[in-house]
C-alpha cells in the first residue's frame, strides 16, 4: 500500500487553530534556465503554492507559533535558494518574536536543478534553528513521508523533540538513489519511521491526527513559566500511609530494597503526566535502563530522568540522560533524577561503548547544570550508574534506599574473595539512608509504609510531594547561588 502523503496545507490545517495561519510572502525567484522556469510553473499549478515549503504564523490552542511545512508535490519537496530563504525567514521570525518553531518537513533533499548553490543553503537554515534553540525556545519536528537528503541531514534532525509519521521514509538517501550510487539496495524497512525509533534516531511514531494534541501538551511542558493547577486533588493534604519501622541496619535496607513488588520508577511515573518519553541518543544505540520524560510534576514542568528497577545501565542509557540534561538547560526546566538500579552493565558491549566515560560525562553534566536539580534515591544505589544521577542541589532518599560504590556482594568479593561478607560490607560502608543523611549526602529521608508493595501508590505520591517541596525551595535561590552551594556541598564531603 502506498504511503499517504498529506500536503502542506492539509497538515497545517490539522495542527493549527482554524483560520489562524498567515503565510509569509515568498521571495522573488530567478530560475537559471527556461526548462527550470517551466518546471516551477507546473509545480505552482499542481500545488497552488509558490514554493516547496509553506511557512508562516498561526496559533495552536491559542498559543502563537511559527510553522514550516514541506510540500512534496512541489518538485519533490526539494529545497532551493528561495525555499531556504522562506525557511530562514520562519526561523528568524520565531527567534525575534520569542515563539515556538514547529517543523513538518517532507522532502527529497536539495533541489538538483540548482545544484551546489542550493545545497549549501542547508548551513544557514541549521544556523538559524540553533540560534532559535539557544534563545531557549522550543523547536519541535514531525518527519513526514519522505524526509531524506540534506533536509534530514540539517534542520530536520535538530529538533528538541522529533516524531515521525507511521511508515514514513526517513533516511539519508532514498533507496532508489542509494541503489544507483552503490549498486545495491538498502534492506526494506531500515529507513522507515518504526525502525529509526527503535534505534534511538527519532523519539516516537505519531499519527498526524494525534500530532496537534501532542504538540499542544509539549508546548506547555517545555515552557518553564507554565504552571498547572498543582498536585492532583487529594495529594497535597493527604498524609499518606503511616511509616513502617526504620531498618535495623544497612544490610536490612539492602534486602528490603530488593523485595519483589517494591515500586520503582515506572510505578512512580504512573502517578504523573508524562506526555512523551524521549528515545533519541544521537548514535543509533538504545538502552532500556534509563527513561527520560518531559513531565508535569506537581504542577511544575521538569525533565524527569530515572532508572528502571531490574535493568542494567548501558552507555546508551547514559547518553540519553545527558540529552535530557541538555534539553533542560536549553529551556530552563528543572531536572529530577530517580535512582533505583542494580548498576552498570558488566558486558563486553558496555566496555566497547565507553561505559566509564559515559558515567563520568553524565555525572559532570548533571553537576554543572544551571537549572534547579533534585535527585531521589528511591531504592538501590549501586555503583557508578547510581552516582552519575546523584549530584543535585538537593537529594532525597527513601527510608530503605542506599548508595554504595558496589553492591555489597561485589565489595565482599573484592575484599574477601567471596560474597559471604556482603552484610558486613553494607554495614561498614555506611550506605543506609540515615547514614547518608548524617554525612550530608542526603537532605531528607522519606518514610516508607510498613507494606510498601500494598501501599506503593501512597508512597510514590509522598515522594512527589517531597520533590515538589524541594523545588519550591530552590525557586528562591539564584542560579549562581545554587551552583556555588552545589560545588561547596560536594567538596565538603569526607
TrEMBL record:
The protein's Enzyme Commission number: 2.1.3.15
Pfam families: ACCA (PF03255), Carboxyl_trans (PF01039)
Cofactor(s) in the UniProt record: Zn(2+)
Reaction catalysed by this enzyme: N(6)-carboxybiotinyl-L-lysyl-[protein] + acetyl-CoA = N(6)-biotinyl-L-lysyl-[protein] + malonyl-CoA
Keyword Flavoprotein listed: no
Record keywords: ATP-binding, Fatty acid biosynthesis, Fatty acid metabolism, Lipid biosynthesis, Lipid metabolism, Metal-binding, Nucleotide-binding, Transferase, Zinc, Zinc-finger
SUPFAM superfamilies tied to this protein: ClpP/crotonase
Keyword field contains Lipid biosynthesis: yes
Domain CoA carboxyltransferase C-terminal stretches: 214-476
Domain CoA carboxyltransferase N-terminal: 1-237
Gene Ontology terms, MF aspect: transferase activity
Localization per Swiss-Prot or TrEMBL: Cytoplasm
Family: In the C-terminal section; belongs to the AccA family. In the N-terminal section; belongs to the AccD/PCCB family.
UniProt subunit comment: Acetyl-CoA carboxylase is a heterotetramer composed of biotin carboxyl carrier protein (AccB), biotin carboxylase (AccC) and two subunits of ACCase subunit beta/alpha.
This protein's name: Acetyl-coenzyme A carboxylase carboxyl transferase subunits beta/alpha
